[in-house]
# Entry
Amino acid sequence: MPLPDQREAVFARIREALRRPAPHRHADHAEHGPRHASISEWPLPASEAFRAFLPAVGATLDEQVALFALNSTALKTDFRPVASLEEAAGQLAALAGENAWKGIASHRHPLASALAEKLGLPCLWTDSGYAVAGLEACDAAITGCDALVAQTGSVLVSSPSAGGRALSVLPPHHVVIARSSQVVPDLASALQLARKLYAPNWPSFLSFITGPSRTGDIERILVLGAHGPKKLTIFLLP
# Structure
């Protein structure tokens, strides 16, 4: 079945966007040079005017969680709201059994480490150094995160929240555990949160994970696990 031609819709959005002048994000910084305040005190980008071009997000937490769940389904993310850490551990144990996991990796994050310990499998901890081959041999990684973005179904992670730069990338199954208070409506809110958490001492790694790793380069056929984990499971606690 031929795919619909989306070019006119894309061109229409570009024409509409070009009618609005782009904000001069760094104009004041360029004018004042080194006398200007530190980067953590710079004003946020003028994002309100451009939110109209992005998917709408509900105002309540329930609406945002529902949108995140909808986006997760489209992205092939396994999203699982749970009532307790014990329920998450039970579901994760079932996943481990179905996929014959022999070893996992995690880090000393309050939720991630508690979930890893409840699973009872051999665990590689990435906080104090590890062998890369050992991490590659793990069947799954359990990490925390900084935020879940309802608008895009993305997970915001950083080296502090996800146990370093490699833990969320090398094992073939990435498991994220978060609380509902970490759900944010959109990308602008996620970036504002990152600034609040880390500026001016930014971590070495900050990334948005939007579904399992994928590529469609060859004949537009979607292949999961191309450049990172093939599976992404997210547990959301109250």
In short: The two ends are 43 Å apart (CA to CA).
